[in-house]
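Throughout our pipeline, every protein is held as a single compact record rather than as scattered files. Nothing more is needed to write down the fold, since each code stands for a local backbone conformation. For reference, a complete record is included directly beneath this paragraph.
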Amino acid sequence: MGSLNRGAAEQKPRAEQEAPGWRTAQRGQPAPDPARAGSGGLARYVVAATLARTADGGAVVAIVLMVTTSGAPGWLAGLLGACITAPHLLGPLVARGLDSCRDGRVLIAWACVVHGATLAAAVLLYPVTWPAVTGVLLVTSGLVGPLLTGGISSRLPAIAGPDQVSQRRAQGWDVATYGIGGTIGPSVVAAVSALAGPTAAALILAAATFVAAAVVRLLPYAPPAARAADVPKPVQTLRLMAVTGRLRRMLYLTVTVAFSVAALPIAAVASTAMFQVQPAAAGVLTAAYGLGGLAGSAAVMCRPLRGNADRLVTRLAGLVAAALAVAALSGSFAPAVAAYAAAGAMNSYFFAATLAARSEFAPPRVRGQVFVWVGALKITAGSAGTTAAGVVIMGEPQLPLFLAAALIVTVAGASVLDRRSAGGLEPG
């Protein structure tokens, strides 16, 4: 009888044996609990993501402040700052583990620990060792940085709940964690540096990643979508995104918008003379953009996006372009503040739509890599956009915003033609 039972089990179709529930039972992991994932899981996710992204966003500021206050030359501060930011571009090379490992929570938690430990070691050793040692530690910290951003986001679809409304409301929370992290991180560094020095600020950020690691381990378990051998390599994943229309459009619109909105800080600084306000007022414009972004993410939480994510990405990119055009046309300071806030809000809506597109259109076996690929290319585009805005400004403070708006409109129009050319080949 026992042999008959074993024979029956061996005759089960391979697809059935490879179902998530079967793998979960075989590995001794607890099965996902939808109720737990949709309530406490989301709260823990927000805490973990906010802590991790606060540390990731503030680290470069702490490093630059530490080096400059030590009396070292500015080029060294820039070089060590780049050591922790530039490796983010290599994120896709470490992201395959998100889709292939048995428990993605373990990988992300270890990434948080490594990020915090190497950041702490870098700032503690900087005064007593060669800068090259600090640089190597910061490169290591930067290499795992993408797992704290796009890597954590890739866990959200398994946590937020099965229906589209829950997923998109959770994506609003995710957008908020990026906004809060990008705002609180540098603010914490500035405040702590003024009181206790930038080294103390960096150590606080490192401690935040250790707490984030502990909270990540408390997230609901989600089994891998495929066996490790079936998970494509990074270049194969990028090729898949390029030939999949909905992912392709999301990718090039994300890159275009990131490149374009990076012109806002440059234009803010350059336009203060035109508005006849103090140079420090540029901080008001950039703060308005940040607050608008937080307001936009809150609006997505309260009223989640509806409709096809592919079309939403195109439409919301157009609204970002409209906000940039209004900012470029503003003839005085107050309308410019409102336009910057609107640009921040529209960019949050756009970001939420791109998260929806990644979650809904990426094949499960490459979802983690898709999230990290998009994040890496977005960072690259933002850096290039800032550089380009500085080059083209040429005494015309609003020129970069006009060009940015025109670029987005052009690419959004191309996405419409791209979608129409696909015709009935793609669902939705």
